[in-house]
Amino acid sequence: xxxxxxxxxxxxxxxxxxxxxxxxxxxxxxxxxxxxxxxxxxxxxxxxxxxxxxxxxxxxxxxxxxxxxxxxxxxxxxxxxxxxxxxxxxxxxxxxxxxxxxxxxxxxxxxxxxxxxxxxxxxxxxxxxxxxxxxxxxxxxxxxxxxxxxxxxxxxxxxxxxxxxxxxxxxxxxxxxxxxxxxxxxxxxxxxxxxxxxxxxxxxxxxxxxxxxxxxxxxxxxxxxxxxxxxxxxxxxxxxxxxxxxxxxxxxxxxxxxxxxxxxxxxxxxxxxxxxxxxxxxxxxxxxxxxxxxxxxxxxxxxxxxxxxxxxxxxxxxxxxxxxxxxxxxxxxxxxxxxxxxxxxxxxxxxxxxxxxxxxxxxxxxxxxxxxxxxxxxxxxxxxxxxxxxxxxxxxxxxxx
Length: 401
Ligand SMILES: NC(=O)c1ccc[n+]([C@@H]2O[C@H](COP(=O)([O-])OP(=O)(O)OC[C@H]3O[C@@H](n4cnc5c(N)ncnc54)[C@H](O)[C@@H]3O)[C@@H](O)[C@H]2O)c1
Ligand SMILES: [Zn+2]
Ligand SMILES: [Zn+2]
What we know:
alpha/beta; Quinone Oxidoreductase, Chain A, domain 1; 2 domains; 14 helices; 17 strands
């Protein structure tokens, strides 16, 4: 089969590799119809992880079942499925409590398994024609319809980004009437904003500096904040305090709540310095959020921070030992949630919202490509070029546009 293979920093290639196949009785073999390229793939692409050359990339995968192992019970050849990026056994202590992001069985190197990702076990990715899905009954979400129909892109986003955006909203305590600020208008940040709106948030601010990404935030009803125009914390507080309706509803003392109740970091350790966006400053966003979140508020961090970062700007960064303004966080009593998304906690419900026509997350998809175009697309996505914010690969199909 043809697959996208990691070759080393800033290089992926389309190569012929051994076909994926059913290796164990519980496996399912899927013929990939769509696979996403993700911001998380860029951490490896840029050589900022311990990823070794030779790995088949791709953790955002969907397709049609080609073959089922002899003990697979609930799925059949021909079923259309999307695969949560976390691979889980379904029966261990963490999986049974819903934490399929911390499965104790599938990854000999640690907790949590995934497709085509460093440190997440020996599983090849789905940026390829075929994909082996371990524990098929657990790891396939069944889909209606036909490959390539009007839901194809929406369903693909159930593998990672839509549940991750939704998880961010949950971690940050977003509920009816909440005020929310999201840093990062990449696919994750935009779907965190979209999920916040689905959950009934009153005000949603999205901070970034990339114009076409901020424009998408505006289109879904969020307030875009361009950090090149000034300190984003001050911009948001000033928008709130200068709005006569928001200000007019505040009793004496409530101006101390000029920030937001929920803050989301949808960027992670590669956050840019607000003052000089050509530089990275891993703690710029968490510092800003500690300032912006009101007393008694909540911070959700879905952007990735790694325990080791060979390309870290300083010694602490290389050891993943980032600083956090604990004093301010403690004084305000800010609650904190972070980590990898347990996709299975959300994907069936979000699928049902899509089917019912109440959610259409594919507004973030900017381009469809064929497998052979992927090396070029990785490079352009890595430069955050316009039109490359969310690229979907259609292995085996002609590019749609
Ligand atoms: N928790 C999980 O399970 C999970 C799942 C998927 C992705 N992620 C992570 O989420 C993060 C975002 O993913 P993505 O695909 O949206 O990535 P992305 O790189 O496309 O988006 C990040 C955005 O942040 C912006 N940005 C950088 N510095 C900023 C700053 N200081 N202030 C405001 N905006 C800033 C960039 O311009 C970019 O638009 C990544 O770290 C990714 O690995 C986590
Ligand atoms: Zn992803
Ligand atoms: Zn498990």
